[in-house]
Amino acid sequence: MKILFTHSYFYKLDEKQWKFKQPYPPLGTIQAASVMRAQGYQVSLFDTNLKDDPKEIIPLLQREQPKYVVIYDDGFNYLTKMCLTNMREAAFIMAEESKKHGCTVIVSSSDAADHYKKYFEHQVDYVVKGEGEETLKELIGTLEEGRDTTSIQGIVYKKDSEAILTAARPVLRELDALPLPAWDLVDIESYRSLWLRHHGYFSMNLATTRGCPFKCNWCAKPIYGNRYTSRSPAHVVNEIELLLNNYAPDHFWMSDDIFGLKPGWVQEFNELVNAKQLKFKYKIQSRVDLLLQEDTLNALAQSGAETIWVGAESGSQKILDAMDKGTTVQQIYEATKCMKLKGIRVAFFLQFGYLGETQKDIDATLKMVLDLMPDEMGISVSYPLPGTKFYEKVKDQLREKQNWSDSNDLSMMFQSTFSSAYYKELHRYIHAVYRKHKGYATLKKLFRDPLRLNRRELRSGLATFYYIPTSFAQRLRLKRLGQELGS
Questions:
Q1: Which of 74, 94, 1 shows the shortest CA–CA distance to 32?
Q2: Radius of gyration for the chain, computed over Cα atoms and rounded to the nearest angstrom
Q3: CATH of the domain spanning 2-165, picked from 3.40.50.300, 3.60.15.10, 3.40.50.280, 3.40.640.10
Q4: Residues 406, 13 contacting (CB under 8 angstroms)
Q5: pLDDT per residue over 182-197, tens digit each?
Q6: How far apart are CA 82 and CA 415, in angstroms?
Q7: pTM score
Q8: Which sequence spans correspond to the domains of the chain?
């Protein structure tokens, strides 16, 4: 039987992300496709990442005539966990078009798991809840044999206008037993050309783990939950070697929630990478407390870690504690200094608008940013997603709008200290002040040694003269917005 796999994320429907021009193939989708191909099914892929319109699936439906269409979102990409309404609407269109062509429609995504009734209204037959590969394998096998689906763990389906939820399925424990993702289904050259044209190098994605054992109370974990399972370092290194040989990437994004948490994992990974003399750069996500353990940073640097993103979130210990973050402001300072000493680029995730945040807490976060000057920043506001403790705290305040339309929406959907307009202006202001200070540092370097400055640094230095008046005007607007709320 033919199975057409797709997913609901369209970079072009998310203006902010499309502007970055850093697309990655749908790793979770091609992993599931590989699992089903190993079962003997014919699989194909409609990769929506670089498409313009969900209706572009129609010619493929006509040509392939699949029996099943599986909208299987990439759970390794944090953008899909945000459950953006632009992508939900795209999923609805693809589901409806697939049903018109007589397909059985199956959806596996964070959004569908939370809002399955909405999906049933748009011609979806089954929703997979939680980790999807084993569930999908059993579901399609059962349908092919004409058997009843009620005993299948991890699905939701509609029966007599009622949604039937089956028991949850345990997570996979032996990740090394999974076949490698079906990279051959992806038009790799379309990704390569975008990366090379806009960044001068080519980056690919892979995952070494599933899940996260930490309990940040705002973080959505609808797919892999609080369990943490890991592939072996040898299995990961073999995949890296295969990708290097077949597709020649310069760089990897390790898309794990937490990279190398298992004791000794990073050290063994480093030994294997160097034993095989593999040369590549990579970026990861980690926690500041983990980076301060033993020789973790040494092993990361020696194996090619170029950038480490950490969930700094706030420069206020009060806010970190309220989030159940389990880290301290002091650890953020220590880990940042250690990463810089090792020559690793530091990137901060920052979050504003959490319950109880005051101007004093915001000022502490800005101070932390200017003290430490990370190489990159991602700024967001607190975003309530079903299944989190944070959502339970604010759900009674939520109105009709409960999801962002795209990743740059930044709307406050609950009663925080300040308004949405304030936080959107704050987002711009933090970036402007940060760039102004980066420009100061570049100008100092220019005066010391003008011949060593490259074009990018020169541009940063000159931009200082733009950000000085811009940040001043934004600060005045912030003050006015704060006063308006207080009145």
A1: 74
A2: 23
A3: 3.40.50.280
A4: yes
A5: 999 999 999 999 999 9
A6: 20
A7: 0.95
A8: 2-165
